[in-house]
Specification:
alpha+beta, two-stranded antiparallel sheet, 2 helices, about 30% helix
């Protein structure tokens, strides 16, 4: 794990929220065939969105360079960003359950 990944994990660990508008989703990294490697849910209540976005950008730049230098291969399945809500005072992924 890179220093940027470790720092991002540390600063986004507290997912506490008062309302759903504080729940954010951050695209991180880049797959070899395009699209985010993963999405991270965090709360803007106790995390600087600007700082989190900066770290995510560093990680994405690193992955882009790595993919080009190593002619990396990956699944081309594109991930969709999760929907989030503040549930029980914590930012969580919201999945609609179909009957």
């Amino acid at each position: 794990m890179s220093q940027a990944e470790q720092k991002l994990s540390e600063i986004t660990q507290d997912k506490s929220c008062d309302a759903s508008y504080q729940c954010r989703v951050l695209a991180i990294g880049e797959k070899a065939c395009g699209g985010a490697s993963e999405y991270l849910i965090f709360s803007s209540k106790n995390t600087s969105t600007e700082h989190a976005e900066h770290l995510a950008s560093e990680i994405t730049s690193f992955e882009q360079i790595y993919n080009k230098q190593n002619q990396a291969l990956a699944t081309c399945q594109h991930l969709l960003p999760p929907q989030t809500l503040c549930i029980n005072s914590s930012c969580q992924e919201y999945k609609l359950i179909k009957p």
